[in-house]
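User: Before I run my own analysis I want an independent prediction to cross-check against. Here's the chain; please return only the structure tokens and, at the end, one sentence I can use as a sanity check.
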Amino acid sequence: MTVAHLRQFWQFVEREEPRSLMMLDDPQLLSWLLTGYSRVQPCSPDELEGLRQYIAVKLLLIRELAQSRLGVEHFQFN
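Assistant: Structure tokens:
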């Protein structure tokens, strides 16, 4: 994984609806993120495997970011 791929991946995560991210269990979320990102940024099989491993260890962070975005949305609109 290059730095550019990582940056693009996190931008992809930030654009996604936080409720969608929170509704999936870990295997579903991992698969959904890999599939969605590979549609935006085509990757080689080796890059996809590296990304899969990276996402697997970042799932908690991804969920925490989505949860914090939900909190901000709730605060802004209620």
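Sanity check: Residues 45-77 form the longest helix (33 residues).
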